[in-house]
Each structure stands twice: as structure tokens, then as C-alpha cells.
Design a protein that fits this description.
By secondary structure, this protein is of the alpha+beta class. The protein contains seven helices and four strands, in the order H-H-H-H-E-E-H-H-E-E-H. The chain has a four-stranded antiparallel beta sheet. The longest helix is centred in the N-terminal third of the chain and has 10 residues. The N terminus is likely disordered.
């Protein structure tokens, strides 16, 4: 009777373990999620469309901030700040592969970096700064 498998006894990694290395999948999941609390829907109502189309002062910017996403946290910024810990994002990711945390995978994206603690609505959290070009494409 053979007890050990042919793979050297190691079982394949669990999907949640693999997800911790999948920053692109994590970002895609977030961009496809609905904007929660938007007064004025934009396009399909997703976070990605809101980031790409809602200019400065647009009501969707307030809804994004309240859910843990800040587009261009500084006037000349080329980043989108995503809260490393936020109750709305926690609820959003709870039924995903990133339920154990989204900050680590997002930090694996090319050009992403850790940011300072900042305000996301009424929540203060460290930020993960994701290059806007990864979401909107390279400027023409």
C-alpha cells in the first residue's frame, strides 16, 4: 500500500495561498466590484469604471473614498490609494480568495508601493499605492 503521493508528499497549494501572490487577480476583483454608496452611478457602476471616468469633484469620488479607494491622493499623483485595512473592503473581499488580506497581493503589482496612513472616509489606514497606469492604461 502506497501512502505518499508521487509529488514528493507535498499537496498542491490551496487557492487562497496562490491568491496571496496574485496581485493582478486581486486588483481585477476590486475593479469589477460595485461602488458602494454612489449617489450617481457611472457606467456599469464598478470601481474600475468609476476610477477611470469620475473626475475631480465627481460624487463617485466620495463614495470611492468611503469604501477605501482614493483616486490621485495628491494633485500630481499617478497612483490610486487603496486602504490596507478597511471595513467596506473587508466585506467586499470576504467571499474572495483575498479574504485573508488584499494589501500583500496588491503590493506585488509592478510599481506598487506602501503608502503612509491616510484618511479613507472615516477610516484611517495605511495605503497601498497602485499605479494609475495599471488601471487606466498608459497615457497616450
Amino acid at each position: 500500500m502506497k501512502v505518499v503521493s508521487e509529488g514528493g508528499g507535498k499537496s498542491p497549494p490551496e487557492p487562497h495561498e496562490l491568491a496571496m501572490h496574485d496581485g493582478a487577480g486581486c486588483l481585477d476583483f476590486l475593479l469589477r466590484a460595485p461602488v458602494i454608496g454612489a449617489e450617481v452611478p457611472i457606467g456599469d457602476g464598478s470601481v474600475g469604471v468609476a476610477i477611470r471616468t469620475a473626475g475631480f469633484g465627481h460624487p463617485a469620488q466620495r463614495a470611492l473614498r468611503a469604501m477605501g479607494v482614493v483616486v490621485r491622493p495628491a494633485p500630481v499623483s499617478v497612483f490610486v490609494a487603496i486602504a490596507a485595512d478597511h471595513p467596506t473592503l473587508r466585506r467586499l473581499f470576504t467571499r474572495s480568495y483575498w479574504c485573508d488580506g488584499w494589501a500583500g497581493p496588491l503590493l506585488r503589482l509592478p510599481g506598487a508601493q506602501g503608502g503612509e496612513r491616510m484618511s479613507f472616509g472615516r477610516v484611517y489606514s495605511p495605503a497601498v499605492l497602485v499605479p494609475l497606469a495599471l488601471i487606466c492604461g498608459e497615457p497616450q
